[in-house]
Amino acid sequence: MDSSPDIAPSLLKEINSIGSEFAKKHINDTPVSETVDAPREDDPDRDIAQYSSILESNPDDVDAYINRGIAYFYKADFARAIADFYAAIKRDPYNADAWFNRGLCGIETGKYDRAIADFTRAIDLKTDFADAYFNRGIANNYNGDNESAVDDLTRAIELEPDNPAPYISRGNVHDDSGNADDALEDFAAAIELEPDNALAYYNRGLTNARKNDLLFALRDFNRAIELEPHVPDYYYNRGLAYFDLQNYDRAIEDYTEAVMLDPEYAEAFIFRGVAWDAKGDYDKAIEDYDRALAIDDADPAAWNGRGLAWGQKGDLDKAIKDFSRAADLDPEAYGAFINLGYACLEKGDYDEAVEHYTRAIAIDPEATDAYFYRAYVYLQLERYGEAVNDYTEVLRIDPEDAQAYLNRGAALTDAGNPEQALDDFENAVVLEPENFEIYYYRAFAHLRLDDPEAALSDFTHAIQLSDNTFAQAFAMRATVHLNQGRPEDAIADCDKALDLAPDAPAPYEIRADAAMDINSYADAARDYTSAIERIEEPDARIHYNRGIAWFELNRFEDAIADNKRVLDLIPDHVQAAYNNACAYSRLGLPDQALDALQTAAESGLDDTLALRADPDLSPIRRMRRFKAISLIVRKNIKDTPPDNPRQPFRRK
Predict the structure, then answer these.
(1) DSSP of 446-506, one letter per residue?
(2) Region 262-290: what's the mean pLDDT?
(3) Rounded (10°) CA dihedral 57, 58, 64, 68
(4) CA geometry: angle 488, 447, 435, nearest 5 deg
(5) Per residue in 232-242, pLDDT tens?
(6) Residue 122: pLDDT above 90?
(7) Is the pLDDT of residue 134 over 50?
(8) What is the pLDDT of residues 462-485, one digit of tens each?
(9) Is residue 217 within 8 Å of 206, Cβ to Cβ?
(10) CA–CA dist 28, 38 (Å, integer)
(11) Where are the alpha helices (DSSP H) in 348-383?
(12) What pLDDT score was predicted for residue 43?
């Protein structure tokens, strides 16, 4: 009986390279111009033409450069915008608006150090420039300096206490810093100042979602959508909240709304695929991952997600191909390597699985799941020492991981160190005294130490802690009863196991063994048949024992069929060949009986007493060929005492 815990990993629903939600949204102020006829966002080309005409007449018109730069900014032509703001600064280095507007371009182009320098210059020139403090705060946030960001945004609030925008941005910075309560206070302040500010509700929803206050998050997302029903991000993040609440249908509805508003929204397609996957509709999941890849075929998250769906459909080759593509695109994609490992494990490519889990460990040596999964593969390879080492690494990372103690104890048991295993099981019990699996696997260590009563006690404890729902424990306790000579108790436990797991083959097999012990051959044959119908691979032992049951029931043809199945699986199985000789003899088929007996002799039969005294062989004993076979058997005699050739194998 395999005593290693069943910790086979399932395909991880882990999406790499994107988070579970969008980054917080800041309100960026629009560019600043002191002129009455400042450019408008709705028609930048007209304004560019207008200010270009002015500059043709007056190449040193600072306001024209600023205004044309703003028009280019609205067109997202930041290179030309920067050039115009630079031209204005060159002509008037004391123009705070020019420095400020160039700083905005720095934020938009990701050049945060330059943006911070420009906003700082604008503040030096205009010390009460609230928008400059505000946007410098945003730039500091993007640049990773949250302390400076909070200082700047606080100053912006002091200068304009009725403006909700800096409250929202300071709330975002607090959230980024892990200060959720401070963030919620700022969003509440923004909402109090402007009750219809959708962005304040949206960002507060994100903070609530991060706190796992999903119902509050939904409330805020609902209000944001009510105020601004055409923003795809709002639906996308509400979909994430519904997904976390396992309301996959509502999540799919929101992701669908997001992609209807923005058909290029790859992340929404990806997470709609994840939702379809959670519902078990893998074909629709694959369709959505395909659509995401059509938008961006360099997104490892889409490849990884599609690999998961292929894996769920059982197409491991396609899964491995997609996981490999995700890993190629992002060599630090921990989840892709975890999934590659699992897919290879499912294919039986254990060495490949170990390689991928090892790569995942190299990416994140402090994450425990890769150690667990690699240890599981080592157990399949019977490399128990390496499995023990991996569980030891888990315990280095988390000394209070009861599952690691449990698994290491099971590995030590399999490695032949049951005494040391008991120490691990004891540690696991201290951490999780109500975990019935610990007692179940500790029982195997007691069996290895030849202490069946202690094993029986642990199996019983496991059953009690599981509220009598642990079918495996009933089956294993039945085995102990059987080996201790208590077949009736074994049968009672198998009955309970089968009430809980009627399709499990093991309880039928154990109950059949117990029936054999009390000579209930019809019951034994019935249960062996039930076991055979439920096992995935043919089992020589079960067929052999059912053959004995058929023989005792005088169903010799059925006995012969089972023994032939045993010989197909184990061609030199002496007992099966011998028992067929007896069955053919009882059927009055001497030639077939002698053929079977010769097979047994050539396979090593050495029981001369059976040849002389077994009444089943009486019809063929006086035949000349029988005497020739007897000579072969005498040559096979060894020092070991003969066994009853039809004694059924005992479950150990």
Answers:
(1) HHHTT-HHHHHHHHHHHHHHTTS--HHHHHHHHHHHHHTT-HHHHHHHHHHHHHH-TT-HH
(2) 96
(3) 50
(4) 90
(5) 999 999 999 99
(6) yes
(7) yes
(8) 999 999 999 999 999 999 999 999
(9) yes
(10) 18
(11) 350-363, 369-380
(12) 87
Q: Give the Cα separation of 399 and 650 in Å (integer).
A: 41
Residues 556, 550 contacting (CB under 8 angstroms): yes
Query: C-alpha distances in angstroms, 468 versus 42, 459, 464, 493?
Result: 72, 11, 6, 11
Tell me the Cα Rg of the chain.
38
Instruction: Give the span between the Cα atoms of 364 and 34, in whole angstroms.
Output: 53
2: CB partners within 8 A, 6+ apart: none
| Count of CB atoms situated within 10 Å of the CB of 605 | 25
CB-based contacts of 3, cutoff 8 Å, min separation 6 = 410, 413, 414, 441, 444, 445
Burial class (CB in 10 A: 0-12, 13-18, 19+), 96: buried
3-state secondary structure 532-568: HHHCCCCCHHHHHHHHHHHHHCCCHHHHHHHHHHHHH
Q: How far apart are CA 447 and CA 453, in angstroms?
A: 9
Q: At residue 216, does pLDDT exceed 80? A: yes
- Token digits of residue 494: 């198998």
Q: For residue range 88-97, what is the model confidence (pLDDT) as tens digits?
A: 999 999 999 9
pLDDT at position 9 is: 28
Structure tokens at 571: 């061609």
Question: Could you say which DSSP state residue 40 is in?
Answer: -
| pLDDT tens, position by position, 300-320 | 999 999 999 999 999 999 999
For residue 581, give the H/E element and its range. helix 574-586
Task: Give the domains, in start order, of the chain with CATH numbers.
Answer: 44-379 (1.25.40.10)
| Mean pLDDT across 326-349 | 95
The predicted pLDDT at position 39 comes to 77
Closest to 438 (Cα-Cα) out of 471, 467, 473, 469: 473
Helix and strand totals (H; E) in the chain: 35, 0
Query: What span, in angstroms and rounded, lies between the C-alpha atoms of 109 and 479?
Result: 71
- Provide the CB-side half-sphere exposure for 456 (13 A, CA): 15
Joined tokens for residue 376 = 């599981």
For residue 510, the model assigns a pLDDT of 97
Neighbours of 434 (CB within 10 A): 8
